[in-house]
Amino acid sequence: MMKKDKKYRKVIILIGLIIILSTGGLAMNYWLRTQEYQNKVKNIVIQEPDLNKIEDGEYIGKYDVDFINVKVKVTVKNHSINNIKYIYHKNDRGEKASNITQDILTKQKVKVDTISGATNSSKVIQKAVELALTER
């Protein structure tokens, strides 16, 4: 009976260690993804496209920083940004950043103030719009 108890105890300890290591691995992976995401967002530089050089048309731009991923369709007419439509917008807590496109349309420039409380999402959206207009 003693051998069965020891064997049972070893199995329980082994299962416990596997659970602890798995959880630790998942936590480490999440932490590393978070660090990479924060670095990507911190290093976003928005370049203002010259609208005078952009022909009429619809342009697709996308930008992905893992936790936030945006794809937009930007319509240009008469060297003006006429419309910005989200093809998709994956965000963590930055849904209200979606409104930044109204500021871009109103001011006719990509470099506008970010939305308070959704700064990272705002930057990713701006970068996607910029890329739509510069990487045609």
Helix content: 40-55%
Runs with pLDDT <50, length 5+? none
Main sheet characteristics: 3 strands, antiparallel
Give the helix/strand class: alpha+beta
Mean pLDDT: 90
| Gyration radius from CA atoms, angstroms | 23 Å
**What is the H-and-E element order?**
HEEEHH
Task: Please characterize this protein's 3D structure.
- With 136 residues, this protein is an alpha+beta fold.
- The protein has 3 helices and 3 strands.
- A 3-stranded antiparallel sheet has the order 1-2-3.
- A hairpin with a 2-residue loop joins strand 2 and strand 3 (80-90).
- The longest helix is centred in the N-terminal third of the chain and has 41 residues, at 2-42.
- The chain is rod-shaped.
- The mean pLDDT is 90.
Please render the helix and strand layout as text.
Elements: H1 2-42, E1 57-64, E2 69-77, E3 80-90, H2 100-107, H3 119-134
Antiparallel strand pairs: 1-2, 2-3
Compact description:
This protein is α+β, with helices and mostly antiparallel strands and 136 residues long. The protein has helices at residues 2-42, 100-107, 119-134; strands spanning 57-64, 69-77, 80-90.
Key structural traits:
rod-shaped, 48% helix, 136 residues, single chain, 3-stranded antiparallel beta sheet, alpha+beta, 21% strand
